[in-house]
Amino acid sequence: MPTNAFHIVDVFATAKYAGNQLAVFEDAHSLTDGQMAALAKEMNYSETTFIEGGNPDDGFDVRIFTPGGEIPFAGHPTLGTAAVLRKHFDVGDEVVLNLGVGPIPVEVRHDGDDEVYWMTQNPPEFGPELDHERLAEVLSLDASDFDTDWPVQVVSTGLPAVMIPLRDRDALGRSEVDPRAYRTFFDDVGVENLFPFCPNPRDDANDFAARMFAPGHGVPEDPATGSANGNFAGYLAHHRYFGDSDVEVTVEQGYEMGRPSHLSLESSADGDEVAVRVGGRVEFVADGNLV
Q1: Which of 121, 115, 116, 114 is closest to 97 using CA atoms?
Q2: Residue 94 β-bridge partners
Q3: CA quadruple 238, 205, 22, 53: dihedral positive or negative?
Q4: To which H or E segment does residue 229 belong?
Q5: Residues 6+ apart with CB under 8 A from 274
Q6: What's the CATH number for 5-121+282-289?
Q7: CA-CA-CA-CA torsion for 132, 136, 137, 139, nearest 10 degrees?
Q8: Which of 173, 174, 182, 224 qualifies as a cystine partner to 12, CB 3.0-4.6 A?
Q9: How far apart are CA 289 and CA 88, in angstroms?
């Protein structure tokens, strides 16, 4: 039986036991695909990662599983795995993870004793704009709950999500996925991740409050979603939400779940191409081995 070492970390955490939980398994080349899928279900976090091998020069080969199966990219697993590599694999302040979407670079920025992990995601791709009223049915809301000054739109930096602008945090708090409407929506649109947001955070130090629902991936709600927030950074830049394609904002997520999370977003444009970066803190929680 495999006895792989594993580590548990909290990503985008405001403190230990906040943010988004992640399990990271070492020596995953010794595990079968079925064992990885079973371990992801056993951990039952939004995602679990498996380090198959690699080195600081060529990058580290990493696979990401949700309880529902393997996915090509996700944000908090990227940062959390980079933190584990830095602590346990003698990696410096820059590391590349070779994921299903290709190589994703991660860097550590130091602010006094604080360390913030930042990943540069793939350039965003902008999909169709969708009807606000249709998302009202999916999220059990009224049409008046939406901020129609901004579009509902599919955006992807490797894992697509639907950006859904709401008027205020009351609407955000009342959001609840209707299973039947969600299934119909997915059958038609083919996107499982829903990212409602509003410019009405609890903390004045933040710029937005958001939630993320992904029941199609076996994740009813996610407390901190780096991939979707990277999509969001691209959305803000693309639509010049602040009048400019350069964006620096902080998003709060996970409060409805008792897992407060802060995600820092940056975007900048070079011609038609938008670069997006997502950053956050990582807290180490536990180490162990399979038995």
Answers
A1: 121
A2: 107
A3: positive
A4: helix 226-238
A5: 123, 124, 234, 237, 238, 245, 267, 268
A6: 3.10.310.10
A7: 130
A8: 224
A9: 14
Tokens read off for 198: 């509003």
Where are the domains positioned within the chain? 5-121+282-289, 125-280
Q: Around Cβ 228, how many Cβ atoms within 10 Å?
A: 34
* Secondary structure class of 11 (helix, strand, coil): strand
- Matching residue, tokens 């004793």: 113
Distance from C-alpha of 240 to C-alpha of 132, rounded to nearest angstrom: 20
Task: Please say if the pLDDT value at position 268 is more than 90.
Answer: no
Find the catalytic residue in 47, 252, 266, 283: 47
pLDDT digits (tens, 9 = 90+) for 7-65: 999 999 999 999 999 999 999 999 999 999 999 999 999 999 999 999 999 999 999 99
Residue 136 tokens read as 């009202």
Answer yes or no: same fold for 5-121+282-289 and 125-280: yes
Give residue-wise pLDDT tens across range 104-156.
999 999 988 889 999 999 999 999 999 999 999 999 999 999 999 999 999 99
- Which tokens belong to 97? 């993870």
For residue range 203-262, list pLDDT tens digits in order: 999 999 999 999 998 899 999 999 999 999 999 999 999 998 899 999 999 999 999 999
Examine the residue annotation and report whether 47 is marked as an active-site residue of this protein: yes
What three-state secondary structure class fits 80?
A: helix
Q: Which CATH superfamily is domain 125-280 in?
A: Diaminopimelate Epimerase; Chain A, domain 1 (3.10.310.10)
DSSP 216: G
Q: How far apart are CA 23 and CA 197, in angstroms?
A: 27
* SS3 category, 244: coil
Integer Cα distance of 221 and 210 in angstroms: 11
